[in-house]
């Protein structure tokens, strides 16, 4: 780590101004004055690594700035890695990449370590960790498997479903990290013991296909028996022939799985 790495003790808004990135302020927003007793938490989602080092560095720098406010203005800060950003969860990866814009603060590993040292928790998308074949023995220190398809699905779903999630869970995934992790089917995918049949529409705006495919991929990777039928259309099949096909699929599935049971 460079001896010049000194992160200023300022707000993230002031930091962006110092870095000449004031144009990002409207996108990132400001911090509402609060105390840790109010239970305010902040989540930084890192979606890039070697494909956009500057963006990854900015997220990690802002996470460290906010982590220094834990116990004062914030009760907690979590850095969550998903998509290409998950690569940074592997030990030794962050050391290979330095942002040209933020090189004064060191490599991505230095920035990640700074955020963790300041008190930020580290979480990685379980599906993405498995996709990049990162074993637990190679996780960066302090990383936990958190979140997954339920978190992504919440934001992919239509407004009505997001409102339902917030009403039944008591908040959105950014506010209730542990609760959404607990209720996420991906958290327990390794425990699946029975055969699974998935039926989904390829243009379902209410319950997007992506969340189904992520779960199916995880099951198949683990060698779990899973069958998938994707039909053209949206939420629920409206064509009579397709609805009949679904009933046939279900009956055939139970006949095969329960035969001799």
Offer a quick outline of the entry.
Helices cover 38% and strands 12% of the residues. It is of the alpha/beta class and 261 residues long.
Can you describe what's shown?
- There is one protein chain.
- With 261 residues, the protein is α/β, with parallel strands linked by helices.
- The chain has a domain at 1-28 and 37-146: 3-Layer(aba) Sandwich (Hypothetical Protein Ychn, Chain: A).
- The chain contains 10 helices and 6 strands, in the order ααβαβαβαβαααβαβα.
- It has a 4-stranded parallel β-sheet with strand order 1-2-3-4. The chain has a two-stranded parallel ribbon with strand order 5-6.
- Strand 5 (196-201), helix 9 and strand 6 form a beta-alpha-beta unit.
- Helix 3 runs parallel beside helix 4 (108-117) and helix 6 (149-156) runs antiparallel to helix 9.
- The longest helix has 19 residues, at 240-258.
- Residues 19-37 have low confidence and may be disordered.
